[in-house]
Amino acid sequence: MSPSPSFESFVLATGPELVAFARRLTLDHHRAEDIVQDVLARLGLSWSRLGGVDDLRAYAYKAVLNDFLSWRRRRSSGERPWADPGTRLRTAAPAADERVADRDQLRGVLAQLPPVQRAVLVLRYYHDRPDSEIAELLGCREATVRSHAHRALSVLRATTAHQTSEGSSR
Amino acid sequence: MTDPEDALRAALRDPDLDAVPPTDLLAGVLRRRDRLRRRRQRLATGAAAVAAVAVLGGVTAAVAAATGGYGTVVPADRPDPPVPAPTTTGAEPIPASPAPSVAPGPMMPPSQPPFVVPPPATGIPRAETSAPAESTRQYPRTTTPSVEATPAG
What we know:
- Chain B: Keywords: Membrane, Transmembrane, Transmembrane helix.
- The complex is a heterodimer of chains A (about 170) and B (about 150).
- Chain A has about 170 residues and is an all-alpha fold.
- Helix content of chain A is about 75%, strand content about 0%.
- Chain A contains nine helices and no strands.
- Helix content of chain B is about 35%, strand content about 0%.
- The chains are: A mainly alpha (about 170), B mainly alpha (about 150).
- Chains A and B meet through helix 1, helix 2, helix 6, helix 7 and helix 9 of A and helix 1 and helix 2 of B.
């Protein structure tokens, strides 16, 4: 087993990608940093006991995912930002890229999904993890993962089709 | 947006979501770790104090129960059963009280007056019966000097 790095070097190396992962889960920068800082602070307190963990990076990813899905975190941060940044961008720059508008629209749909379905989509389409690993991370069966992904994609398709039909009718 | 999965993949891999300065993150993590450590220390101290109070209270209660130090209310003992009254049985007949032989009468005849011891005579206090050889009282005397007895000068 390789000697474990110092806590500070681990935070400097792994922290940014953990925040990026949490930002895709939460769709909120401040909430993502809050989750990652909480998780890393708890890891720092028990850093001396984590020598037996083989993959500290995977351990930290799992901790971030668990914290995002925990009932305590969902209760403490139930508020959602009401401002639509895509609208602000389009107002400031009328010739903004259509891709930005689509991306913001997609994030709006993602924000309406349950946290578990959002986590499945992020792990599947951002980290390209197979369903077996996602099931292991979430503590459920592969069939449950496929069910979550199917429902989330159905919502995305329905919303996209509805908005496309609205845009073509205008 | 043609395919929702491709669009989703493109939206999730947006590089704008990756910009995080690691030094700021490290400072926040260290600050939060110190705060969490202090909170856990306070919790440990409080738990130890509660445990100590519980142990001391339990020991005190055990000692008091063993030595009877507490003023506990103890129900009074039941009174003794009443002593049964003696019952007359045929085995031991009670003897009859004896009848007086003579009729009781007065102890002294009523004709005689009661003897009364005369009190000692208490008359006028008298002088002593035996005459004194010389009067003890010294009366003042007036002496007249005699001429004859006076030596001529």
